[in-house]
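Box 3.1 A note on notation
Throughout this textbook, protein chains are presented in two layers. The first layer is the amino acid sequence; the second is a token string describing backbone geometry. Keep the layers aligned when reading.
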Amino acid sequence: HVLLAETYRLQGNLSKSSEELKYAFSNNDLSLEIKAKILSSYVLTINKNSSPENVDNVIGLTEQLIKQSPDNAQAYVVLGDMLKQKGDKKAARDAYVKSTDYDKSIFEVWTSIIDLDNELKDNNGLVKHTALAAEYFPNQAVLWYYNGLGNYAIKDFEEAEYALDEAKNLAFSNKELSANVNALLGDVFNAQKKYKKSNAAYEAALKADPNNEQALNNYSYFSSLRGENLERAKELSKKLIEKHPENATYLDTHGWVLYQQSDYENAREYLKKAVVQANASGTVIEHYGDVLFKLGNKTEAITQCQEAKEKRNHS
């Protein structure tokens, strides 16, 4: 059956090849080592022809291997790879996590877990898995960064600050990561009302990367909410909308900076552009209502505020 499977594989008939492998894998007399090698070669073929049928075939073979060898870390990694190809992110993440029960030494597996935690918006999972990974790879700045990101998302700001400080110390030679770390530190300090530290972190992020969008937007927006550094906020938010003229969030930030400077006419121009975007949040619509109110259009202002109440993220 193994020889037939290989013959069919070389002929490009993966369906027949998979059928023969199922017979082979169901036989306990075939050693686990040989099964693992066969599976690895089959996966390489799948990477060239990842049709849904072929991916399902590999998943079936991998599950057979796991039944016979439940502590085979590599089998869980292969299963995770195939489930990710299939688009089942949660099951893929769980397969990768299971592999770490038996082998915690593969850094790429941890990064796959963390990427999927992030995509799934599983912030508690992100915190847990980055902390575990950092026990084995304590000098990897990216692990501390994502741990900080997860803790920030669940509002554990002290833990986020600790993790990001670790990341900052390790990422000093990586300008892109250093900028992202400092931008997130700016958010964390702002949430803790440590505004001077927040401003300094944003400035450090922009020094490392003058185009870091998180720093440009959040520095501007949080400054506008406090009515501080408004000229700097105007400069930075203008840079963003020149690059992204239809981004509702960035248009809202610039419009709100102008609003705080009492430049209501120009603020209305940008906030009006923001509210017509498909992803405009309740906050954006509410801001538009506020500027209309300042300009004396009270009826339309009330209409906008009523619409904002139907959306997410309004005051």
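The mean pLDDT is 93. The chain is about 80% helix and 0% strand.
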